[in-house]
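Box 4.2: Ligand-aware structure prediction
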Amino acid sequence: MSDLTASPPFKPRPVRCPACTGNSLYSPANPYRPFCSARCKGVDLGAWASEEFKLPDDTPPDETFGDPRLQ
Ligand SMILES: [Zn+2]
């Protein structure tokens, strides 16, 4: 009697998408796991990138940094 029920090492289970907090499936069939879609994965990475590279470009020059010798 063969009772070898090969249990899959990776059992798909429902998870919450970190990007849209929607329903996602953590499974080998979902290459974007734990995200629900490529868009959510891209949005998350894009947010990180834009947050890293975005620098305030409207900082006014500080007048206090004048030449001390002029005093
Ligand atoms: Zn999502």
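In the box above, the bound molecule is zinc ion. The beta strands are 13-16, 23-26.
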